[in-house]
Design brief:
heme binding, transmembrane, about 250 residues, about 55% helix, Globin-sensor domain-containing protein, oxygen binding, single chain, 11 helices, globular, mainly alpha
Length: about 250
């Protein structure tokens, strides 16, 4: 049995230390998994318009998710097109100014993901992803953007939806298509790397919505709070188990 690794809970407040722990637990190797993810760029870049439309078609299919896009998504701009009721979620569509603004944001996010070169825990890429989490809590407003509050349940569901959509894209590629070919082995390697990434991103959302027991202070010490069954950083374990089961199924 290998020697147990010691993780100081307070270190998880430090982003590079947190990323290092997530990488270690999920077996995310920056030097191999990162390039596997960016190898998708030639395949996904031409599909981005279709993927973006699919994402927001899904989000506009439910009033509870569409409601987040009713307020203006950019500061000092009208919140709606002329003649559209600000409270009417059914008036939102893919050509609405607010949705176009959010599609631009998601496009930039995906391009940055597929173009990233530094996957180390110290990379500013993780700072960017962490800031994406902060922005969606509604706690941050800039001169260019109004606050946007999206509840965590919807974010987690969208990450799962995106993961499934990209599994479909990768698995549908013909073996002789693209640079180097897309053998089953390569598809599995790419999907495993992507799966690990989504769980890191999930944590960088969750940490801003949910308190981690190990990082709480006076309330815990004075017994005012009960210990939760699962810590937020423990979600990485769910990602690890999910990935292992998926690989076993594909190889089975």
């Amino acid at each position: 049995m290998s020697k147990i690794q010691r993780i100081n809970p307070s270190s998880l407040s430090h982003l590079p230390s947190r990323i290092h722990y997530l990488h270690s637990f999920l077996a995310f190797n920056p030097s191999t998994d990162g390039p596997l993810i960016t190898s998708l760029k030639p395949l996904l870049a031409p599909l981005l318009p279709t993927l973006l439309d699919a994402v927001y078609t899904q989000l506009l299919s439910y009033d509870i998710t569409a409601r987040s896009f009713l307020p203006s998504q950019a500061a000092n701009t009208p919140s709606q097109d002329a003649g559209i009721d600000e409270k009417d979620v059914e008036a939102l569509n893919l050509n609405h100014a607010n949705i176009k603004h959010r599609k631009d944001f998601l496009r930039a996010y995906l391009i940055r993901l597929l173009s990233n070169r530094d996957w180390s825990p110290q990379s500013r890429f993780w700072e960017y992803l962490d800031n994406v989490g902060v922005v969606h809590t509604g706690q941050k407003q800039t001169a260019k953007k109004n606050t946007l509050r999206v509840e965590y349940v919807h974010i987690a569901l969208l990450l799962g939806w995106l993961q499934d959509a990209l599994v479909g894209v990768v698995m549908s590629v013909k073996e002789d298509e693209g640079d180097g070919g897309w053998t089953m082995e390569r598809k599995i390697e790419v999907l495993r790397a992507l799966g690990k990434f989504w769980w890191v991103q999930n944590d960088l959302f969750a940490r801003h919505y949910c308190e981690d027991w190990d990082l709480m202070g006076e309330e815990k010490r004075t017994g005012l709070l009960e210990r939760p069954a699962v810590k937020m950083t423990g979600l990485a374990a769910v990602g690890f188990v999910t990935g292992a089961i998926a690989v076993a199924f594909l190889l089975g």
